[in-house]
Specification:
Layout (H helix, E strand, L loop, with lengths): L4 H14 L7 E3 L12 E4 L1 H9 L3 H19 L9 H10 L5 H20 L1
Antiparallel strand pairs: 1-2
Helix pairs in contact: 1-2, 1-5, 2-3, 3-4, 3-5
């Protein structure tokens, strides 16, 4: 049975908590770039963590990225009409040298809370 969106968002948070990186989807225990689903991966960027949880299900990847991007736009006070893709906005945020792991986790927390509210309705 497929995980719920809420469960996947929580798993994304746990993935980032266990190890976060910039500029590549994932890094293995030897410090090498790798696939987000590599069993030796120990650090992930935000979009790498999404790919890990959605396991190459592109519709689910896009859905999770959209939910995270909605919250990122609120945090960053971005226009709702921004034409960049959710993926590119998330990557730009994650890879910005001023962005911290705590800020990335904050966006994920906002997405988790929004999904909890949506499910309760």
């Amino acid at each position: 049975m497929a995980k719920t969106v809420l469960a996947q968002l929580i798993d994304i948070k746990e993935t980032i908590k266990s190890g976060w990186c910039r500029h590549v989807y994932a890094i293995d225990s030897n410090g090498n770039m790798c696939s987000p689903n590599n069993p030796h991966a120990c650090m992930w960027c935000l979009t790498g963590a999404v790919e890990k949880q959605a396991y190459w299900n592109y519709a689910r990847i896009r859905s999770l990225e959209a939910k995270l991007c909605t919250q990122l736009k609120k945090v960053q006070r971005m226009s709702k009409t921004t034409t960049a893709s959710a993926r590119s906005l998330l990557q730009k945020f994650n890879d910005n040298k001023a962005t911290t792991k705590r800020q990335v986790l904050g966006v994920i927390d906002r997405a988790i809370n929004a999904e909890r509210k949506r499910v309760k309705k």
